[in-house]
Amino acid sequence: MKAIRYHAFGGPEVLKTDEIAVPHAGSGQIRIVVHCVGVNPSDWKRREGQYASFEAAEFPLAIGVEASGIVDEIGDGVTGVAIGDAVFGFGEGTVAEQVILTHWAAKPATVSFEVASGLPVIIDTATRALGEINIKPGQTLLVSGAAGGIGTAIVQLARLRGITVIGTASSPKHDYLASLGAVPTTYGPDLKERVSQLAPMGIDAAIDVAGSGILPELISIVENPKQVLSVADFSAEQYGAKFSHGPPKQPEIAFADVANLCARGLFTLHIQDVYTFEQTAQAHRVSAEGHVTGKLVIRIF
């Protein structure tokens, strides 16, 4: 079968189409025929070697960590799923024709394969971040870089919990943030002044999604580094802030919950662009530019 892999760290040009053996589901796993794959910043950061200092790398390496598709093989001990079911979830090397999923949930019929493929990372990250920041209903959360995939999930899940959200993004994305229930504002100079006007009673917590070096300013706004968390800036703990990271803990529970919200129209995910398998490198280039609204998706089948 075909899979996208790379044999050395580097730019998008290192991505190659390789012929590899079809994998088989082990105990507690399922295999799917892949329909779509979500693109995440972690994909190209790994490809560039940014994770090499704390993740073992043995080339060739495959890309992609989430996918949607149709179950075609079930491992020992797996219950609650059947051959032919539509699912989405976590796997490794998911930009391929068939992949193994380790955590998954059923895809509702009213949710497209494109949207489903973009849910796992943002759901897991947003759920974990909101849990770790310990913000309560009625409080106010500042989300820096709120219009991307993870920001989209944090805003909506926070609003569903009764939390007021102020989200930063470029001006053209403000209508999008407002549609999710956030109060939009621009990033850049004088953010503290703008936020103080929008939230005169103060900000109870802040989450940095973009990893753009804004942590000192967020700490200044919140006035408590322990109530500032980043999902993207590895230096967060140097400032006394929190850094949120995996591995996932029972993410299939959150997957199923949000899938249900999607089916009921209470959670949405904007898909900015859909790329073909052969356009994977271009999807990485666009993601790395840092201006994605919602998610990018690669369609395999």
Strand content: 25-35%
Succession of helices and strands: EEEHEEEEHHEHEHEHEHEEHEHE
Low-confidence stretches: none
Helix content: 25-40%
Give the structural class: alpha/beta
* Computed Rg: 19 Å
Number of beta-strand segments: 15
Report on the biggest sheet. Answer: 6 strands, mixed
Supply database-style keywords:
single chain, 301 residues, alpha/beta, six-stranded mixed β-sheet, 26% strand
At a glance:
Helices cover 29% and strands 26% of the residues. The chain contains nine helices and 15 strands.
Annotate the secondary structure layout.
Blueprint: E1 2-6, E2 15-19, E3 30-39, H1 41-48, E4 61-62, E5 66-74, E6 86-91, E7 98-106, H2 113-117, H3 119-133, E8 140-144, H4 149-160, E9 164-168, H5 174-180, E10 183-185, H6 191-198, E11 205-208, H7 215-222, E12 228-230, E13 242-243, H8 251-263, E14 271-276, H9 280-289, E15 295-299
Parallel strand pairs: 8-9, 8-11, 9-10, 11-12, 12-13, 14-15
Antiparallel strand pairs: 1-2, 1-4, 3-5, 3-7, 3-15, 5-6, 6-7
Structure description:
The protein is of the alpha/beta class and 301 residues long. It is built from nine helices and 15 strands. It has helices at residues 41-48, 113-117, 119-133, 149-160, 174-180, 191-198, 215-222, 251-263, 280-289; strands spanning 2-6, 15-19, 30-39, 61-62, 66-74, 86-91, 98-106, 140-144, 164-168, 183-185, 205-208, 228-230, 242-243, 271-276, 295-299. The strands form three sheets. Strands 3, 5, 6, 7, 14 and 15 form a six-stranded mixed β-sheet that branches. Strands 10-9-8-11-12-13 form a six-stranded parallel β-sheet, sandwiched between helices. The radius of gyration is 19 Å and the shape is globular.
